[in-house]
Amino acid sequence: MTTERDDAHRSAVLLPGELLGLSLDERCAEFEALLLAPPLHGIRPDGHDWLRQRYAEIVPIVLPAALRAVERGEPVDRDCLARLREVAAARAEDPRVDVSVVLRGALPAIRVFALVMHTATRDHAATADRAARTMLAMSRASLVAHELGSCWAESWSHQRRRAAADASATVTTGEIDLVAEAPGLDDTEERMLALAAHGLSNDAIARETSYSRQAVAWHLGRLMRTWKAPNRTALVSIAFVKGWIRARCSERPDAVWPPALGPGTDAHDDGP
User: Fold this and answer.
1) Contact call for residues 220 and 272 (beta carbons, < 8 A)
2) Are 190 and 181 in contact, with CB atoms under 8 Å apart?
3) Type and span of the H or E element at 177
4) DSSP helix/strand/coil, 197
5) What is the C-alpha to C-alpha distance for residues 54 and 84, in angstroms, rounded to an integer?
């Protein structure tokens, strides 16, 4: 004769591939409806619309595979992960979102799963066996959520770094390519200096480099203090005179050099 403790112990050691018996992989429609209207507290407000759009794009791809993985104790399907990486890479250059939103993007899905598990436990007899299976489902779900979240964030970040590296090697505006290389500057500051030479505002530089406007102002301000430049125009001029900004001009005879610091610069040119 078995006891409730025996039942709980047997459920707690369910082997990979053994069904939970909660029929999670048959509840896609229920989960999808909840995920497409996820609770977004804890996510920055300016990332809400972007995250809703990504859920609408991603949920049909990952949900069936995720529920199957939790119900059956199987790895997430490789094709699902490959498609998720493709979506992440395609969205990496979207200027409307930053890394904080990307890293927290899995939280709504975890909250939804916890809600459904709570409902399932409440609506059924709270036997030790069901409680143990629910705990195991939560454990499996946390692993799946981590795998999917990591897959998305790593692919997004990798593509973002690739785009930044490509842009830092050559900055193109019109017919002129600028490359900055100066002593004491890291890759980020060289990229910002080259963009400043093209007349981009701090906001535009922030969008191009995935830094905040305040961070851009801090970096450019540091260069101005270090090089004793009273304003941005002087900062760029010093860099040109020192040879720290190089130009690759096109073969067109009418290519203008150096480029003028035009309307793209900040209205207050006295600061960074």
Assistant:
1) yes
2) yes
3) strand 176-180
4) helix
5) 11
Asked if residue 38 lies in contact with residue 145, where contact means CB atoms within 8 angstroms, the answer is: no
Taking 3-state DSSP, the helix, strand and coil percentages for the chain, each rounded to the nearest 5, stand at 60, 5, 35
Contact partners, residue 191, CB within 8 Å, separation at least 6: 164, 167, 168, 171, 180, 208, 209
Rounded Cα gap, residues 141 and 70, in angstroms? 6
User: Is the peptide bond preceding residue 258 cis, with omega within 30 degrees of 0?
Assistant: yes
Which residue in the block uniquely carries the two structure tokens 């990504």?
54
Q: What is the pLDDT of residues 209-220, one digit of tens each?
A: 878 888 899 999
Handedness of CA 102, 108, 110, 111 (dihedral sign): positive
SS3 of residue 180 by DSSP? strand
**Is residue 235 within 8 Å of 271, Cβ to Cβ?**
no
Total count of residues recorded for the chain: 272
Judged by average pLDDT, the poorest of 22-31, 88-97, 141-150, 173-182 is: 173-182
Q: How confident is the model over 165-207, as pLDDT tens digits?
A: 665 554 444 445 677 888 888 888 888 898 888 888 888 888 8
- Please say if the pLDDT value at position 261 is more than 50: no
Give the span between the Cα atoms of 30 and 61, in whole angstroms.
Answer: 15
Rounded to whole angstroms, how far apart are CA atoms 252 and 111? 58
pLDDT of residue 256: 41
CB atoms closer than 10 angstroms to residue 108: 21
Q: Give the span between the Cα atoms of 44 and 211, in whole angstroms.
A: 16
